[in-house]
Amino acid sequence: xxxxxxxxxxxxxxxxxxxxxxxxxxxxxxxxxxxxxxxxxxxxxxxxxxxxxxxxxxxxxxxxxxxxxxxxxxxxxxxxxxxxxxxxxxxxxxxxxxxxxxxxxxxxxxxxxxxxxxxxxxxxxxxxxxxxxxxxxxxxxxxxxxxxxxxxxxxxxxxxxxxxxxxxxxxxxxxxxxxxxxxxxxxxxxxxxxxxxxxxxxxxxxxxxxxxxxxxxxxxxxxxxxxxxxxxxxxxxxxxxxxxxxxxxxxxxxxxxxxxxxxxxxxxxxxxxxxxxxxxxxxxxxxxxxxxxxxxxxxxxxxxxxxxxxxxxxxxxxxxxxxxxxxxxxxxxxxxxxxxxxxxxxxxxxxxxxxxxxxxxxxxxxxxxxxxxxxxxxxxxxxxxxxxxxxxxxxxxxxxxxxxxxxxxxxxxxxxxxxxxxxxxxxxxxxxxxxxx
Length: 437
Fold this sequence. Notes:
The chain is mainly alpha-helical. It has one domain. About 70% of the residues lie in helices and about 5% in strands. A two-stranded antiparallel ribbon has the order 1-4. A hairpin with a 3-residue loop joins strand 2 (about 155-160) and strand 3 (about 165). Helix 3 (about 35-45) crosses helix 4 (about 50-70). The chain is globular, with a radius of gyration of 21 Å. The termini are far apart. Its main location: membrane. This is Guanine permease. Keywords: Cell membrane, Membrane, Transmembrane, Transmembrane helix, Transport. It is found in: Cell membrane.
């Protein structure tokens, strides 16, 4: 059995091991396990049953991870995406007054369109058409984004009325827990200790439990909440999508998930060294995996599923094959029954991992042609746009809008592909729809 696993996932060819892949899968899971608790809270604001959303989140994540691992053989995990779940609850349901059942139907319709454009390889064509420099910028931008996320979640960076953001207060124990984890993880990585990120997370958890900054759970095992309140509800409300406003909602679900996932896939592929001649091998299978997970997630009862930037933590540990993603998927299933234990993995535990992974992903920035301003300007806007707008897709939009403009100004317009020109207009419309009140 072990030999078949090694052969199928090309463990030896990728210069890795089964042990390392499993450790990487566990690290990825620990880094993104928070979604099991965050997603029910966010979607619960729309009126959805939080217990059902918890189960739906675990099942959709598990399915997406396992499909990604088996079909595409990439160490990339999937789960309901942050940001789009907030759009689902706060913009669509609370802001527009759309019932959550109808919004869920919108996710279902968007996922069907997703599958169609994946089958016809339109998504693959778009990803291949993105210039190499912009792909490097996307990878580095995601690195800055998740590092900023880690600094924020760890309490090191906080909001500030005078300066927008500022250094957080240092008289809070949990902030020092994050700092401890960051110092330990940094030392381990500098010393090139295998599994340094995971060891850092474990050390931070132990210190948190010993000092009381992290509460010991009352019990270890609990039954999975019922899926009944949300299961197949989307199918019953497809007919409710009967206005221009609701079709705009469907289009927004489609566009945001498309470019969030595309950007994340490209960034992670760059980090892992999978890109060949500016193309991502087996990208069609990767896109098919996340499209199927998005469809299944809408039927289970959750917002759109997409590739997760936290997969970079597993890649940083050494994960290179689909076995990493399969391991993460199986742990999501196990997580259904060990939800009290998962509560010890607080944001202070995962924050140091996100910060140092951001450093690793930023290394791709050295390959951008910074001396060519027509390349540097759109690349910089992608890089800076992601953390400052708190959105991968918004950062991509800024860069993709400026890229044709700067290339034409440099008299290099013929080098821009027709697809990039088309995306220029798509993103202008996208930004208008999302941001004009």
